Amino acid sequence: MSKDILGKALLDYLKLEYTEDIVTQSTLDEADVLPLSYMFRNFEQMPYLEQTALKNCKGTVLDIGCGAGSHSLYLQDKGFLVTGLDKSPGAIEVCKERGLLKTLNNNFLNLRDQKYDTLLMLMNGIGIAGKLKNLDQYLNQMKKLLHSNGQVLLDSSDILYMYESDDEDGGYWIPQDVDYYGEVTFTMSYKNEDSEPFDWLYVDFNTLKRAASFNGFECEMLIQGPNDDYLARLTLM
């Protein structure tokens, strides 16, 4: 997303120049809307799954893909030493303007020589892996960034239901050119400007648990959400 569509939109909203929302297109379905106001929600406006994740944070926290910083700011207000990480320069500028004290404008895989007690990956933060084949690389990076007693808190969704067949005999129809049904390609549009296509991963819990175990993590489900979503905790074996 070299055009930083998200960052531009968040900055407009912060500066009271809001006129429209981000529109997303994906290989899954028709156009959808990402309301900018949702990125600025407070704790009471967050889904129960996110609230639970924030309540389970401990120690030093890295908020991966922090966006407008709503999760980070809540934790900072609660006394946590939290760092907001986002590769969007605009998003990081918004976080700073909103009062977040520690930020990193970088790619998650580029981080070195830092250790945290909690890695926080909300709003399907594990999606940054893009493809299932990349999941091992991201899990190994998590291991490098965690203290020995640290944890990863992440949410994702099992989107198999989106491939349900309309046939009377039921079943699922998954395109043959897809390696794993949770792999989706998105574009974002804002004010007549389009992002480059980017890959995003939705991973079902059992697949995540197998990958986590292979890479030296215990994986437990903390919450099963109402929409095939879940909150998981990963800890080092």
Explain the overall architecture:
With 237 residues, this protein is α/β, with parallel strands linked by helices. The chain has one domain: Vaccinia Virus protein VP39 (Rossmann fold, 3-Layer(aba) Sandwich). It has 6 helices and 12 strands. The longest helix is centred in the middle third of the chain and has 11 residues. The protein is globular.
Task: Kindly list the characteristics that best describe this protein.
alpha/beta; globular; Rossmann fold; 237 residues
The major sheet is characterized as:
7 strands, mixed
Shape: globular
Which topology does CATH recognise? Rossmann fold
How much strand? 25-35%
Using the 3D structure, state the CATH architecture.
3-Layer(aba) Sandwich
Helix content: 10-25%
Uncertain segments: none
Helical stretch count?
Answer: 6
Which structural class best describes the helix and strand composition?
alpha/beta
Written as H for each helix and E for each strand, in order along the chain, the element string is HEEHEHEHEEHEEEEHEE
Strand ordering within the main sheet: 5-4-3-6-7-12-11
| Terminus-to-terminus distance | 35 Å
The structural domain count equals 1
Quickly name the level 1 CATH class.
Alpha Beta
Number of DSSP strand runs: 12
Radius of gyration: 18 Å
Fourth-level CATH superfamily: Vaccinia Virus protein VP39
Q: What's the overall average pLDDT, rounded?
A: 94
